[in-house]
Write a structure and sequence with these properties.
This protein is α/β, with parallel strands linked by helices. It has helices spanning 14-26, 37-47, 63-73, 88-96, 109-127, 134-145; strands at residues 6-10, 30-34, 51-55, 78-83, 101-104.
Length: 146
């Protein structure tokens, strides 16, 4: 059985964010939900998730800006973009922004969850000794910030 992932979901549509967060929680993952890009950045820095799922079209700080700020401020192994827009142009922007995954809204939950789990597992395994004990590393980081 896989270890539960720490997943941060950010979407300005509160119902969508909460629903996705609840579904991921039912899969035994630890989930936090943000409703703005700025809140996602703060939670990512404080909570150090394994995966961050960002809506791209949030007002204020959009998903692209939030991804950039998260990558600069913390070590998040996986960034996933979620958007109602699709096509080669948006996919190119997502890739250029450093996202690992791209999902169009309406994706089946099973496909989204499986992709998040697979890439996170691969990424965390590849980090190996750089991420040997996630709980201990997070506790040390929290003590350093206190």
């Amino acid at each position: 059985m896989r270890d539960p992932l720490r997943i941060l979901v950010a979407d300005d549509n509160e119902d969508a964010a909460t629903t996705l967060g609840n579904l991921l929680s039912y899969c035994c993952h630890q989930v936090r939900v943000a409703h703005s890009g700025r809140q996602a950045v703060e939670l990512a820095r404080d909570w150090e998730p394994d995966v961050v799922v960002l809506d791209l079209e949030m007002p204020g700080m959009n998903g692209f800006a939030a991804a950039q700020a998260i990558r600069q401020g913390t070590e998040v192994p996986v960034l996933a973009a979620l958007s109602g827009w699709a096509g080669p142009e948006i996919e190119s922007r997502v890739k250029d922004a450093g996202f690992d995954l791209f999902f169009c809204k309406g994706v089946s939950f099973q496909n989204l969850a499986a992709a998040l789990e697979d890439i996170a597992e691969d990424r965390l395994e590849a980090l190996g000794d750089a991420w040997p004990d996630r709980a201990a590393a997070r506790a040390a980081s929290a003590r350093a910030r206190a």
